[in-house]
Amino acid sequence: MLSLKRRQSEEKSIREILKPSSVEIAPDKITINKRQNRIIMAAGWPGRVQEGFLDRIITAKGEFDISLHIHPMTNDDSRVYLDNAIKKMDADNFSLKKTGSSSATLTNKINDANSTLKKVEFGEERLFDTSLYVNVKAYDDSGLEKQTKKIESIMSSVKIVPRRPGYRMREGIESVLPFARNMLGVKRALTTSALSALFPFTTSYLEIEDGGVLLGVNEKNSIPIIQDIFKFRNPNGIVVGSSGSGKSFAAKLLATRIMWNGAKVRIIDPEGEYAALASALGGKVVKISRDSKTCINILDFMGQGYNEKRESLMSSFAVLFGDMSSYQKSRLERAILATYKMKGIEKEDTESWKKTPPILSDLHKALSDEREIAETQKHKDEILSIMCKMDMFVEDDGLFSYLNSGTQMEFENQLVVFDISEMSEHIQPLILHMILEYLNYEMRRDRERSLVIVDEVWKLLREPAVVDHIFKMVKTSRKWNMSLFLITQQVRDLVNSEAGEAVLANTSFKYIFGHEASDMKYSQPFFGLNERETQILLTAKPGEGVLMLGDSHYNIKIEASPEETKIVTTDADVLRKEEID
Ligand SMILES: Nc1ncnc2c1ncn2[C@@H]1O[C@H](COP(=O)(O)OP(=O)(O)O)[C@@H](O)[C@H]1O
Ligand SMILES: [Mg+2]
Question: Which residue has the higher pLDDT, 64 or 411?
């Protein structure tokens, strides 16, 4: 008893809170707390409706609510309703004939009604009393009139007859509020199939996929685009745009949302700007340096086969040593095989591939053995030259001696940021190559959904070894449940490279943000942007751009919720304001 009383008083107080402070009813509008509302009702309907025909109204931009009332009729009522309708139309037809004329439309309607009646009798169709109302909202008279006209013209274009219920705005507003009270009572009987055509969630903008994440908000109609990137034919994505156009912001937001959806996220961060994100999301920042325990041993198989590893090693060394003569290449290959053999790892014995691999100093030693047996001084010198280039990796005080050690890369964290910002540009591509190799291994082993983000990838795409790797990854990612997300501001590099073509062909979602005119001339043909999109991109603010999903283009905006903004923002002003608040 007591709890009932308490509930009643709580309900009352909620009503007190929600109740508007003023309501003003006029013949053609109702103003609630300064906001004007006008109800438009569907007074007439087209004879036949096509599937999704409400899309045009739903996807229109502006402030309005749509309210549909659907009330099933009993079979008996349906029969009586149809019978009466047929009788009336027959009578009209009869009087028309008497005047010597005829109407094809009327005859069609009679035939339609007869066939519907049959279907109702056989239980194939049912009838539903249906009402459609639109509540248009604005803050002033001219806005209200403009918006009303717009909705009326859209309704007319899909052959719905719009009408403003004069002097009945109060009933109107009650009919559109979520109380299921159809006070206006302007109904039309629709069959099951016609009703299903009214089902409003059929536009491509509105396909909200289970397990999907918000990719952006459609600028045209403010409808969110929610898709599961791992279900795309090709789960990879790319972002292009000039500096400051919002690429990293979009990537951080995607990372956050994907992570909240349960997938792993791995980020390669050449600018050192993702640490805050990692700390906000409980992720881990990995720096591969002298001071960290983490290490990748370049000679580690990491799940690859013998030959595959051999090839990838040759491309890694190409990054390190630059151009090699064919003699140098052949001796290096021999030294690699000898180093593995020394550790009992042989091509034919797959079990041996799991043994502890050699490290760089072992390879250095094998090269020195090759040098011993080289026949000419020239050959000895050639081998010595690559050995010298290796010194910085193997000598105790060598610049990169921290890479001369076994792989230490186990982390259970859902989010890992590889910060490579403090490395010299010379070594960055090699490290990226090694990280990608490790990630590839991790993905193949776990086969869990994972997103791998490479920011400012253009810097790193200049190395053929890295390009090869990216190539391989974009082509096989789907198999391992991985999505590779590449960020670049240098469109030119992408356009003119084979890797660019491969990336384009193997990415299902592409964000194109603000562009400088000088870059636009490359992007426009490369992405097939139209004139309007080009204009939008030349003046876009951060986070505004075009999202390409397969062949569809959408003008979108990247919007973060206040919670997300706290996590992803790098804007010093916003951060400072947060601190002051
Ligand atoms: N969608 C967005 N909403 C709000 N602020 C944004 C948005 N996109 C970018 N910004 C802000 O604009 C600035 C530049 O964005 P950033 O993503 O770092 O650019 P890019 O990586 O393209 O160089 C940052 O301060 C960022 O916080
Ligand atoms: Mg950036």
Answer: 64
| pLDDT above 90: percentage of residues in the chain | 47
Q: Which fold has domain 213-296+407-580?
A: Rossmann fold (3.40.50)
**Any idea where the domains of the chain sit in the sequence?**
213-296+407-580, 306-394
Query: Is the CB of 22 within 6 Å of ligand 1?
Result: no
Find the DSSP H helices in 490-571.
491-495, 498-505, 517-527, 531-538, 562-568
Are 271 and 453 in contact, with CB atoms under 8 Å apart? no
Q: Is the CB of 525 under 6 A from ligand 1?
A: no
Lowest mean pLDDT among 54-58, 122-126, 459-463, 531-535: 459-463
Q: Does the C-beta of 249 come closer than 6 Å to ligand 1?
A: yes
Taking the CA of 239 as reference, the closest ligand is 1
Condensed to tens digits (0 to 9), the pLDDT of residues 45-77 reads: 887 776 667 777 877 778 899 999 999 998 888
Rounded Cα–Cα distance for residues 554 and 70 (Å): 33
Q: 569: Cβ below 6 Å to ligand 1?
A: yes
Assess whether the C-beta atom of 514 lies below 6 angstroms from ligand 1. Answer: no
| CATH number for the segment(s) 306-394 | 1.10.8.730
Give the closest residue to 503 by CA, choosing from 513, 488, 525: 488
User: Nearest to residue 292, comparing CAs of 409, 130, 156, 426?
Assistant: 409
Residue 408 has pLDDT above 60, yes or no: yes
* Closest ligand 1 atom number to CA of residue 569: 27
DSSP state of 180: -
Question: How far is ligand 1, taken at its centre, from the CA of residue 511, in Å?
Answer: 14
Q: Establish whether domains 213-296+407-580 and 306-394 are of one fold.
A: no
Residue 201's pLDDT band, with cuts at 50, 70 and 90, is low
- The rounded Å distance from CA 558 to ligand 1 centre is 10
Ligand 1 center to 570 CA (angstroms): 7
